């Protein structure tokens, strides 16, 4: 049991590190490839890999009930999150996005409680409200007095991906960790082929090597391998426990934005990131006695 827990935590950490470079990679790729290729094309790239693996392994089809859960995962992780974050990264710095995505663990915990049939405590809702207000204040501060469309896109991305994480973590115990995201990718990819095909252009060939590396990173790592590690970690260590590793994500994102994008970070960004993460920790631990792990 202890070995499984440690393995689950390690896989979860690997997944979070991989996810943390998603916004920087998106920010690098969007100017050269556009929203459609970056937002949807990553799934087409991942689908080629997944399809090959499924053919070799002769993977059995999921049941009807499992397919319904896979649709939820596909909507959140394969469609909504890539498109919404791609749209947001057109106008927002990565450090800005990192603060708003810091609410993801809280959203995941909330949906985990809901899917487990448990009622969130007052402490959870107070922490959620405090974290959300902090994020909104920060977004308004950076937006010179108003929220931008990119802010709403990121908040929607957090909600939908939180649901997808909770659903995928639960389903991974039935069908396996990598199979969850693999099936979700195959479900979504056919709908993306035509838009991606229409979005292709000759000018993409002039994109620098770092843009190409970012695009393939998004397709191979962010869209597939990171989810394999993440869902595998939640399956072994529990959704709530492994989900706490997400506390590191905003700081990793901010670090990557400084390292690879040359963004400057102010003290208020660090302070507010710490406040949001503290709210998440309080909210996530509010129902420990009830156990947030999905059975």
UniProtKB/TrEMBL annotation:
One of its GO terms (cellular component) is membrane. Keywords: Membrane, Transmembrane, Transmembrane helix. The keyword Transmembrane helix applies. It is found in: Endomembrane system. Its main location: membrane. The chain crosses the membrane at residues 39-57, 69-88, 124-144, 150-168, 180-200, 212-233, 267-286. It comes from the Bacteria. The keyword Transmembrane helix applies. It holds the Pfam family EamA. It is a multi-pass membrane protein. Residues 7-137, 149-281 form the EamA domain. Belongs to the EamA transporter family. This is Permease of the drug/metabolite transporter superfamily.
